[in-house]
């Protein structure tokens, strides 16, 4: 994987470049480290305090791409037979396209669209209607709402989402978004120190770097004057909470928050937690939970990241919420993984990583969401370098006692 290179452009914006002659299409993404979580609701920019509702990062994603100085950027790319889209995650906003023709023209339009945006009331209102429809669909997804509620409960220092637990906003909050605050958020977060570009394909390094430097030479620097509040992430907000929706089953979610020990990297922290999670899902005790019916097919588990914490979220449908949560916590807290079990789990994680890399476009597309804990495309070499003793020594400091429980129930009529 040494073909991946990190190149610092003349304006100090990083370019992550992957040159591969076997790729038929070129993939390009423009990324801003500004997402939908509550980390960005309160901030100070240029000496002025701001307190905004949820949904501004997602709203900007739609506005900047669909109403730029070239018209609808995505329609323009598609007319060039390029596949174009964007997404807003909790920690990043990413605009991307892939194709085989007119790549340099689209790169230039993508950068100019982001760096020289058009803000007018007509475009803002057109964007509002589209987002209300999308937000309505999101807020009807019961499983996602349950998981977001559980994750929200893991932090006492800030509201990760608004009270409907929708990271992209909802019907009510979307109707309250203003053009002035959109511009304020753009000025605060779309700064040069918050951006990076990803390009992958059969391209010439020198030509691409020269192109980017030339485009940016005609764009004024966007300096940062942003101050974010010093939030205490150490305590959880609630032990449990219930979200009532008109659903036929009682769905529960266990969220565990683990702080990274000071003496290890986020990359190693993420890897060791991946081993614990994968070992849990493949353990006899966990399979017995499935066979007993205590956890049914609704369950799934995943990680999210906030600062130097990893959140492990486990969702399941059960009639024995308390007992099930106790068993899951006990299994997570076990640190008696044998060397044979560790090596089997390690090989599985590396194999999964290599399978992802084989799907180059999707793997590179998801790279911006990994920026919280890595600065490289592939971690397979690092994973294989962590031996059993190093792993056991690292996890001896992990504390699984900081947890919360969410529950989704039928509306009482």
Task: Summarize the structure in words.
By secondary structure, the protein is α+β, with helices and mostly antiparallel strands. It contains 15 helices and 14 strands. It has helices spanning 56-66, 73-79, 103-115, 121-139, 142-152, 171-176, 179-189, 205-217, 266-281, 284-292, 321-333, 339-358, 360-366, 380-385, 388-395, and strands at residues 4-8, 14-19, 26-32, 42-45, 48-51, 83-88, 93-99, 195-201, 226-227, 240-245, 251-259, 300-306, 309-317, 403-410. The strands form 3 sheets. A 6-stranded mixed sheet has the order 1-2-8-3-7-6, with helices on both faces. A 5-stranded mixed sheet has the order 10-14-11-13-12, sandwiched between helices. It has a 3-stranded antiparallel sheet with strand order 5-4-9, with helices on one face. Strand 4 and strand 5 form a beta hairpin. The protein is globular and about 60 Å long. The model has no long low-confidence stretch (mean pLDDT 89).
Reconstruct the topology from this structure.
Elements lengths: L3 E5 L5 E6 L6 E7 L9 E4 L2 E4 L4 H11 L6 H7 L3 E6 L4 E7 L3 H13 L5 H19 L2 H11 L18 H6 L2 H11 L5 E7 L3 H13 L8 E2 L12 E6 L5 E9 L6 H16 L2 H9 L7 E7 L2 E9 L3 H13 L5 H20 L1 H7 L13 H6 L2 H8 L7 E8 L3
Parallel strand pairs: 2-8, 10-14
Antiparallel strand pairs: 1-2, 3-7, 3-8, 4-5, 4-9, 6-7, 11-13, 11-14, 12-13
Which stretches are poorly predicted, pLDDT < 50 over at least 5 residues? none
Cα-to-Cα separation, first versus last residue: 58 Å
Biggest sheet statistics = 6 strands, mixed
Work out the helix count: 15
Oligomer state of the chains in this structure: single chain
Total count of strands: 14
- What coarse outline follows from CA principal-axis ratios? globular
Strand content: 15-25%
